[in-house]
Amino acid sequence: MKIIIKKQLPLLGVGILLAVVATYLVKSDMKVVRETIFEEILPEEGLVIQGFQYNQENPDKGITWALDAGEMRSSGDNKLISFYQFRLTLKAKDRPSFDLKGEQGSYSRDSGEITLQGNLEGISGDGYRLVTDQVLINEKSGQIRTESPVKISGPSFSVEGLGMSIDLERETLKILADVSSTLKTEHFSP
C-alpha cells in the first residue's frame, strides 16, 4: 500500500529545506574548510576538525542555517566531506524553523549526494517530527529517499511505514510499504 500526500504538507517543506541546505553546502564549497592552512599541510590525508561549526545566511531567500558537528573530515582531494554527531538548524523567513540531528553525514561532490544516518530526528517549529535512521538526498534530481522505517507525526496526524520517497519538484511524499496512519479527529470537526 502506498500513501501519496500532496500539497501543503509541512514535511514537504522539511524536504525542501534539506535540499536547500544541500545546495548551499555545495555552492559554498565549504570555504571554511578550503581556506584553512591545514589543507596545504596534509593534502593526501585530508583534514579533521573537532568541534566544527559552519553558518550560512542567504538574505535574498530569507534563509539562515547552521551546521554544528562534533567532528568534520574531508578527503585529501576534498571530494568527500563527512561530519559526525551533527545538528543542523534551519531558519527561513516564511517557513517554520527546522532542527535535524543525527550521528553522521557525508557529502560527495562527484555524485551530489548527501547521506545522513544514525538516529535521525527532525523537528519543525510548528510541531512536526520526522524520525528515521538513514536518508539519501540527491541534490541533482531533487529526490530524498530512505529504505529505513520512518515515522512522521504532527498536531493532527501520525504516519509510519517502511521507506520514504520525496520528490521536491512534484511536491510529493510517499511512504513505500507497511503504512500505518492515525488522524486526530479533534482537528477535523465538521
Structure description:
A 10-stranded antiparallel beta sheet has the order 1-10-9-8-7-6-5-4-3-2. It is mainly beta and 190 residues long. It is built from 3 helices and 10 strands. It has helices spanning 10-28, 31-34, 38-41, and strands spanning 3-6, 47-58, 63-74, 80-92, 95-108, 113-124, 129-138, 143-153, 157-167, 172-183. It starts with a strand and ends in a 7-residue tail after the last strand. Strand 8 and strand 9 form a beta hairpin. Helix content is 14%, strand content 58%. The chain has a single domain (3-187), classed as lipopolysaccharide transport protein A fold, CATH 2.60.450.
- Can you give the mean pLDDT? 77
Uncertain runs: 1-14, 29-43
**Number of domain modules:** 1
Structural class: mainly beta
Order of helices and strands: EHHHEEEEEEEEE
Layout: helices, strands, pairs:
Elements (H helix, E strand, L loop, with lengths): L2 E4 L3 H19 L2 H4 L3 H4 L5 E12 L4 E12 L5 E13 L2 E14 L4 E12 L4 E10 L4 E11 L3 E11 L4 E12 L7
Antiparallel strand pairs: 1-10, 2-3, 3-4, 4-5, 5-6, 6-7, 7-8, 8-9, 9-10
Write a brief structural summary.
The chain has 190 residues and is mainly beta. The chain is built from three helices and ten strands; from the N terminus they run E-H-H-H-E-E-E-E-E-E-E-E-E.
Question: What features would you highlight for this structure?
Answer:
190 residues; mainly beta; lipopolysaccharide transport protein A fold; 10-stranded antiparallel β-sheet; 14% helix; globular; disordered N terminus
